[in-house]
Design goal:
Blueprint: H1 2-9, H2 13-25, H3 35-38, H4 43-56, H5 108-113, E1 122-126, H6 130-133, H7 137-146, E2 149-153, E3 166-168, E4 178-179, E5 189-192, E6 194-195, H8 208-220, H9 229-239, H10 249-254, E7 259-263, H11 268-271, H12 284-296, E8 309-314, H13 328-331, E9 339-341, H14 343-349, E10 356-361, E11 364-372, E12 380-384, H15 397-400, E13 428-434
Helix pairs in contact: 1-2
Length: about 450
């Protein structure tokens, strides 16, 4: 009920009811959430209830509401009636759920460091930097150090790849052709564009797909079938929603600025993957997880008095994960790695804008400047993710020279959303204190 959540939301029950009625009565309205709402202790419930709200207010799959693209290369095509992979397997140590060919990264260090049958002893990383982008980065470093063998496909010697026995350098972004397979599935308009590489790779360079293909052929003993990503893309385009209209890789190459496929249209009925063609609005696993929310004390705003603030992460306009910090053009200017807090919290703690503060959790502590921000909710602080390039033995020379700390040094990989297994970055309970100047 609105009364049950009013205190936790900071919005009174009457206003919540009025917002709900306004949302239902509006000519067009949509409730949207994605990454920020996902990476916390009840991310699965948040995303489910976001969809439920749009459904119940008549704002699902209609103009002005929550709509879905029909991408030229369709990731969900031909999956109708196939059972969900959720929970098909469990991780070895913490029994976290498998989904969509993945286990949660929150348990990766456990799988490496815990002895027994199935213990991970070898690792391949591909263009990732989990030491700075996954929770409990220090423990993950320890895990990578303990591996029997580690291979990284990467263009950087970074905080993760420095643990690898071999780094296989792929071509860079300007040397590869590009078609956006993933984000066209989240687009606000249907488009398709193929970009040729700006520079041709040299004969001794390999694309990442060539590296992975060659590794797979060596491991399996199979012969190369000659299939390339461009061939796979062309086949997917011809079989997709616009194939009968002549969509193909050749068409995209003939239109280097892209092809406009039109505005989003209601399309859920033909794209829905359930066997009976209906939306199952209240799956039992979500209903069961509501009990976990009730038992958590979160709605009662139960906070550890020793760690009274809730920390959330944030993205920055000129920063993407951990790798753009090695571009001088993207990091020049004032230090963006700050702890943002409300005016009231800063005054109560005696902190001023730009003053160095310590952020501490039960798992670690970091120091960074304060940034007072009127948009921050009282009791909540925000730190950008992806920073902290201050570990030794990397080749990230531009990033190394930047200030900034890793939010993962105060996050705990043991803290997850039990429903999804996702790491719960947001909502980490922390304490804030001023740094005494010598």
């Amino acid at each position: 009920s609105p009364e049950a959540v009013a205190d936790a939301c900071g919005i009174d029950a009457t206003t919540i009811r009025n917002l709900a009625r306004d949302l239902a009565a509006a000519k067009s309205a949509v409730c949207y959430s994605r990454m920020g709402a996902s990476t916390q202790s009840f991310g699965g419930l948040c995303q489910w209830l976001n969809n439920v709200l749009n459904l119940l207010t008549g704002n699902f799959d209609r103009r002005g509401g929550a709509m879905f693209p029909q991408p030229a290369f369709d990731l969900v095509r031909d999956k109708k009636g196939k059972p969900s992979s959720y929970g098909r397997f469990e991780s070895r140590v913490r029994k976290l759920p498998y989904f969509n060919n993945e286990f949660p990264v929150a348990t990766l260090a456990d799988e490496i460091l815990t002895p027994g049958e199935g213990q991970i002893r070898g690792m391949i990383t591909i263009a990732g930097n989990p030491v700075l982008s996954s929770p409990g980065g220090a423990r993950l470093e320890q895990a990578f150090d303990s591996l029997g063998f580690m291979v990284s496909v990467d263009i950087y010697l970074n905080e993760t790849t420095r643990h690898a026995d071999i780094i296989l350098p792929a071509t860079t972004g300007l040397e590869v052709p590009h078609f956006d397979v993933f984000f066209n599935s989240f687009a606000v308009r249907n488009t398709a564009k193929f970009s040729e590489p700006m520079f041709e790779k040299t004969p001794d360079q390999k694309h990442d797909w060539e590296i992975l293909r060659d590794l797979a052929l060596h491991l399996t003993g199979r012969e190369d079938d000659g299939v390339t990503p461009e061939m796979m893309l062309d086949g997917g385009l011809k079989q997709g929603a616009y194939g009968e209209q002549g969509m193909s890789l050749a068409k995209l190459k003939a239109n280097p600025h892209g092809v406009d496929l039109g505005p989003l249209q209601p399309c859920l009925q033909q794209r829905l993957q359930t066997e009976d063609g209906l939306i199952h609005i209240a799956p039992q696993l979500y209903l069961d997880d509501l009990k976990r929310l009730d038992a958590s004390g979160l709605l009662d705003q139960a906070r550890n008095p020793d760690y009274p603030f809730a920390m959330i992460s944030r993205r920055l306009p000129r920063s993407h994960n951990t790798w753009t910090q090695n571009s001088h053009r993207l990091v020049k200017g004032k230090n963006p790695c700050t702890v943002q807090m409300s005016v009231a919290d800063a005054e109560r703690l005696g902190l001023k804008d730009g003053q160095l503060a310590q952020v501490a959790s039960p798992t670690g502590s970091i120091q960074l400047p304060v940034e007072i921000n009127d948009d921050m909710f009282e009791g909540v602080v925000s730190i950008p993710q992806g920073w902290g390039h201050n570990r030794s033995d990397t080749g990230m020379t531009v990033a190394e020279a930047q200030p900034g700390v890793s939010i993962n040094d105060v996050t705990d990989a043991q803290r997850i959303d039990a429903l999804t297994g996702n790491a719960a970055f947001n909502g980490t309970q922390v304490a804030i204190s001023a740094i005494a100047l010598a």
